[in-house]
Structure formats: structure tokens, C-alpha cells
From TrEMBL:
Name of this protein: Tetratricopeptide repeat protein
Stretches the record annotates as Disordered: 236-261
Domain of life: Bacteria
UniProt cross-references to Gene3D superfamilies, sorted A to Z: Tetratricopeptide repeat domain (1.25.40.10)
Amino acid sequence: MKPEAPELPEDTDASELHTEIRRELRALSKGLADKVAGHLVATGNLIDTDPEQALTHARYARKRASRAPSVREAAGLAAYRSGEWNEALSELRASRRMGGGSGHLAIMADCERALGRPERAIDLGRSPETAELSQQEAVELRIVTAGARRDLGQVEASVVSLQTAELDPQRQESWSARLFYAYADNLLAAERVQEAFTWFVHAAHADDDGETDAPERLDELVVRLGGPEMAEELVAEAESNDPNVVESSEDEGPEGGSATS
């Protein structure tokens, strides 16, 4: 009995599917390939706004095209976003077996951590596949494994594990805010409050897209620091080393307007 297809959103355009993924569907009949493509596109369109519905479409695509690595990958990512940790792990492992590569190690490690298996998360961080990761993927995996060490009570080790060349407020990469935030959070767990405050400042300045709640964490720490005076001193010190703040001040004239106006 064929699985019943969920209704596609009206704006779904199967032709938007990436050419490489289309190639994986060539073993299917054209009609079925088009149908699977539509549900994969719907998965991608919905995963940020309605992950559970995205998972419904991904599961249907998986039932109709289970031998396509990208279909299994889409199912795994949708399951992860929906909090279905076991399913996410199963699908991402299948995708890696079929397609090779080291993709989504950080997500797999995060699933292991969510399932209460921090040791397995740390093992993934030590696996040979890590040598194939991009810099961003390596940073994301390091953040997850640092959290796994905290789960095991290895708080100082979690702090040390994040002390790499990427942990530099002079660098502003797409992953900087998340890395600075994770480092600050681990410092706080180690009761290194002043250092944590400083790195939450760096995280806030690097976070152009509002990915973290660093400003709120800073507000919470003011009392623990003994009041606003100490907090202001730490902010000033942190901002003196922050390129975002320096660039902003250089763009302003003496009255706060643009220096070039």
C-alpha cells in the first residue's frame, strides 16, 4: 500500500530542487521523481517555520525514495529540527553511508547529547571524519562536544576545548557569535563570572542576526558582578578589543552623525 502524500503548499515549485539532488532521483519514474522533488522542496521551505510539517513531507519522500542520500539527509534534518533525535540520527547515518562524506557531524553529536549519551557525542568529535570538516562545521562540532563535556561534569575541560584560534573577538565570522556565546556560557558554569561577562559582550557584538540571547544574559550578570559600575568597566574593556565597535565609532562624526556626511 502506497503511503498517502501530504498536501503540498500552493507555492511549492518542484523545479527549485537542486540539480544534483534531481540526479539522485533518476532511478524513479518521472512522475514519482517529480512528486518526491516537490516534497523535498516543501521540506526545505518549511523547516525553519514549521519543522513538524516539514518532517511530514520528508517522511513521505523517504518512503518513496529511500535509496537517495539527499532524501535521507532531508529527513534527518527535519527530524532534528522537530526534536526526533533517534530518527534524525538514523537518517543522517544512512545518508552518510550512501553518499559518503562527513556532513552533519555536529547535528549527530547534538542528537547523542539530547539522548543522554554525551560520551558518544565526544567520540564523534574525535572521529577521523573531522579532518574533512570545513572550518564552520568544525567550530559547530566543537561547541557541541564542549557541551557534552559539561554534561559529564567536566566543566574546565569544556572551557579549554573551545580555546582555539577561532576564539578571537577580532574575527567576525558567521559562527563567531555562537562560539563566543558557548565559551561565555561554559565560563559561567565554571564560576568565572567576569570572564563570562566579557565574552557575552563579544557574542552580543558579533550577533548581527539575533541568534543568541547574549544581551539578556549580560543583564542577568550585572547583579552577580556587584552592580552596573563593574559591568560598565568590563564592557568598555571588551569593546576596546572589538572591531565592530571600533568601526562603528570611526563612522560617526563628533555629533554622532556620519563622518562622511
